[in-house]
Amino acid sequence: MDQARRAAHQPAQKPTKPTFSELFTPKLVTVWREGYTLEHFRADAIAGLTVAIVALPLSMAIAIASGVTPERGLYTSIIGGFIISALGGSRFQIGGPAGAFIVLVAATTARVGVDGLLLATMMAGVFLLAIGYLRLGTYIKFIPYPVTVGFTAGIAVIIFSGQIVELFGLKLAGKEPGPLVPKLMAVGEAAGTINFAATFVAVLTIFTIACLKRWRPKWPAMLIAIGLASVIVALLSLPAETIGTRFGGIPRSLQWPALPPVSLARMIDVLPDAVAFALLGAIESLLSAVVADGMTGRRHRSNCELVAQGFANIASSLFGGLCATGTIARTATNVRAGAHGPVSGMIHSAILLLLMLVAAPLASYIPLAALAGVLAVVCWNMVEKQAFATLLRTSRGDALVLLATFLIVVFRDLTEGIVVGFALGSILFIDRMAKSIAVEADQSLVPEDVADSASAYDSSEASDADTVVYRISGAFFFGAASTVGTVLDRIADQRKNFILDCSAVPFFDSTAANVIEGAAHKARRAGVRFIIAGASPQTRRMLINHGVKRPLVTYAASIRDARAQLKAAPAA
């Protein structure tokens, strides 16, 4: 009992900062330390097989939509996916090519070719390593929710617009334009070249996936739909283009690792693409990890995850793959399939490699219209329709951020959309925080306000004719400095003594400290004694560093202590 009393009266120890090893230890190591059993392996094997079946058609479809050959998508899932699972900071993350990258990868490939794409991917990997080791991954969470919703919806629109040609088997007069409006105009001009066989295959694929998702949700709907479409095209000899007719099939092995052509001029040329890959990869992978955390109750290590993404992108580029990142849909499938840890992701990559080695010839029969149908379903699922509608209804500010991000992504550029959306979201946040601060006069400081506080005081003291007491509540930062400064300028010279209660201020910045310093100088010139009460150690340190100290002001732990100072040493 005595020990319990002593323990209860001991001051709480401050939480220690996590060490480097704690921050960057892969979850695979954590799982092994917990004890990995045969039962765990069995669960991971089943989950890995399930995810591989989903990833097989998606990897090829994303690669083709990105303007490269289908095997590069498989290389990304095999090499990048394995490293992300082995070194990552999430138990359940599944890595590979992501639909969000289609637009960026296609634009980069069209501009600098595949060699330039591989170099940009490698540089993005280096940037991700830097972001992770500098521990900047924590700040990704500050991206406003309307930005992510608008960004994802915009990407879905762009990806779908890029599949219209394959969905209907159209024959364009020239190269397909990148921007949305010219692309739609080119599609309209080619409407007379529609291939009804390709259209039938696409509709059949979408219909099959929708039916299986409704009636047999645990079945691999995409793979079944691709297989059914391939069989029908082969048996009926439909005039629909396939992987074999366009690409000659896919190889039955991985290519040997090799560096892409590297030069300073080339690196400068692809630098904007590499930065865009790194930023989008960081956002996409950490969003995916957050989704997995929400489904499982676990917590990922964000910076460790980004380091794994960095190594994965470097390795993927060496083997001829695309940008690798965490994928939300495949990660969610992994969780639902009962995965125990990262081994499931590693098994998923191994199964994909085995399928490529054994069943590569069968891929030649896959219709491109069927893969386009798969991506059309992916685009539909990407759009958070309910969240989009809710944000439009609930707040004008959030609706503005959402629509600005969405429209800029669709009609201008992905990176511009994120930057503008983030900037608008930040301005909206500053405006809301500035409006939340309040400066209250002494009459509001009645006993009920402080009934549970050690700084409770007699309300009769508030009627002291020589003393005025004001309380600031809320974050005091540059956005609120003008409002608070105006009030302080008005009251700092009204009476002999001025007590400023800062106990309800959770945050002070340098602009706020400068405002307090100005009020203190004005009070001193007017012969007013200025006492700051209830300031936290951090706030007091900020104010003192900005010159808010004796003889300008004195500090007190509470309003009662401030009044005690005045009684002990009244102003002359």
Automatic annotation (TrEMBL):
Gene Ontology CC terms, in alphabetical order: membrane
Residues in STAS domain copies: 466-566
Compartment(s) where it occurs, according to its Swiss-Prot or TrEMBL record: Membrane
Membrane topology of this protein: Multi-pass membrane protein
UniProt keyword Transmembrane helix, yes or no: yes
Record keywords: Membrane, Transmembrane, Transmembrane helix
Protein name as annotated: SulP family inorganic anion transporter
Organism (species): Mesorhizobium waimense
